[in-house]
Amino acid sequence: MMNTQIDFTIAIPTYNGATRLPELLTRLQNQIHTENINWEIIIVDNNSNDDTAKIIQNYQANWPYSFPLKYIFEPKQGAGYARKRAVQEARGKYIGFLDDDNYPESTWIKNAYEFGEKYPQTGAFASQIHPQWEVEPPENFQRIAPFLAITERGNQALLYSPKSKLLPPSAGLVVRRQAWLESIPKNSILNGRIAGNTLTSEDLEMLGYMQKSGWEIWYNPAMEIYHQIPAWRLTREYLIPFFRGIGLSRYVTRMIDVKVILRPLVYILYVINDVRKILIHLWKYGLVINTDLVAACELQLYISSLMSPFYLWSHGYFKKSSS
Predict the structure, then answer these.
(1) SS3 for 257?
(2) How far apart are CA 175 and CA 206, in angstroms?
(3) What is the value of pTM for the model shown?
């Protein structure tokens, strides 16, 4: 059989996703206008202990579609490791990352492929991500909603400027495989949240390296997905450690495009700005921190951002990245 060129790989990193994957696979089976696109699906099981493997094996045993469904087990836990494994296994020119709770519109693959072909300098491009709340969030939740991979930036394509220090989440992100291979170091510092380690932002580290290498990062609103957000993700018990992890990771993402010789100066400027944010926030919300969850999350983010380099150094993350 001739080895057919693959245009597009759907990569699905999953941990204990047995109950969520069937709906996602149904959405992918129902993609339209893909007749001229050769594509594949790769499930990367990131050390699950539920029935994920069995679920995928059952699908594979009765898979009538022309696009293949592959299953890969990645024992090294962390979303960063799962994505790297997906890139190793992928054959597509483009790799579209969907989490197991990201449900795409029926034209998602078509719109993603066409965008990549239209903009050859694009290293990665992000989806428009709509929330599907299990319970309604607090009224002021929009202040922190983007941190939960909610990206609604209008209906016009937008280029992320390196000066803005703003980058999209990995949910619904499509990367050009060439850009990844040319830009992403073998040993990164951030690899995703696991038990006992709340560090996150591994996706922003990856995009930072890509942008530093000269590739463009875009927002493509024509690629629409729906992010399922259960009630437990709106609790204080989940959100405070979540924002702590984002803050503690920030020194890495802040310094990617800063020359080594300038980092001490830039770090001092960030310290001044973080302290300013903390003081202003306490002045505005200090009396309601214990009752206003959004304000508490924001304060945790600012304090953890200030602590980030000390935490990373004391826990040996800089040594791990250079080994």
Answers:
(1) coil
(2) 10
(3) 0.92
Asked if residue 312 has pLDDT above 80, the reply is yes
Q: Are strands 8-14 and 94-97 parallel, antiparallel or unpaired?
A: parallel
Domains of the chain in sequence order: 8-231 (3.90.550.10), 238-322 (no CATH)
Helix ranges (H only) for the chain are 21-29, 52-61, 79-89, 108-118, 177-183, 202-212, 236-248, 250-255, 263-285, 293-314, 317-322
SS3 assignment for 222-246: EEEEEEEECHHHHCHHHHHHHHHHH
pLDDT in the model for residue 323: 44
Per the listing, tokens 């034209």 go with 107
Query: What is the percentage of the chain residues whose pLDDT exceeds 70?
Result: 96
Residue 213 has pLDDT above 90, yes or no: yes
Q: What is the mean pLDDT of the chain?
A: 93
Q: Residue 154, by phi and psi: left (phi above 0), alpha (psi -120 to 50) or beta?
A: left
